[in-house]
Amino acid sequence: MTKTALITGGTSGFGAAAVRAFVAAGWRVVATGRRAQRLHALVAELGADKVHGAVFDVRDEAARDTALAALPEGFRDLDLLVNNAGLALGTRPAQQADLAQWRTMIDTNVSALVSLTHKLLPGLIARRGAIINISSVAATYPYAGGNVYGGTKAFVKQFSLGLRSDLHGTGVRVTSIEPGMAETEFTLVRTGGDRAASDTLYGGAEPMTGADIAATLLWVAQLPPHLNINRLELMPVRQSFAGFQVARKV
Ligand code: NDP
Ligand code: 8X3
Known about the structure:
alpha/beta; 9 strands; Rossmann fold; binds 2-hydroxyethylsulfonic acid; binds NADPH dihydro-nicotinamide-adenine-dinucleotide phosphate; 16% strand; 8 helices
């Protein structure tokens, strides 16, 4: 039977690649995002019988609920929620950071994710569905300038594990995916559109791609229903860990 996924942030990066991968594997997909043109293009590319574009800002619950209430026949019974929409803003140390940027990250990566999950949980339980949340290596490994972004992703990781506990016995699967460096629009967004900064970061690093993450999401989603991946951390070979820092004078 055809399964249906709702993938937030389907207009770019991991989400857009995931929409294509899930459709290629025979799924129907509700793809969400603010950029309507990109969602229309995805529907034109993949077919209106396979993809439904739902245009809303994940922080706007009223717009979200209107879009969800308008899901066409064939896209209403969701088997999978992929909470992917999210962003980092800024790389400055906490003491120089912009509080409005911190609030935007919390509102998007945490509050909106929690709210959408809460809204869709009853249907996911009824269908013994699955939830895949996109966290990050930044959830586990702190780095300078990662402050609130890392905090939001640590929340996503821990919330996922908590959901697993609460959903015990329901058959609903929950996974936290924790990627390292992947070349998408992530750094363009983080830097306010600095193409040179983005190209410099990814240059020579052989970063992961949206397609790499999409293949991982599809693999997790299509595992046998008795098997749950709790957390999955993945990185490019050329990225690894750095040590602690010591300030000898303060
Ligand atoms: P992109 O910037 O390429 O994509 C982000 C997606 O999120 C877009 O589709 C965007 O849609 C959507 N989005 C952002 N804010 C909102 C909002 N307020 N309302 C609705 N949609 C929103 O980045 P990635 O694909 O890299 O990021 C996807 C997820 O992966 C994020 O949660 C990110 O934190 C995480 N991640 C990324 C890593 C990387 O190295 N790239 C590594 C680890 C995790 P639109 O602008 O159209 O609304
Ligand atoms: C994105 C990965 O390392 O830039 O979540 O924080 S990182």
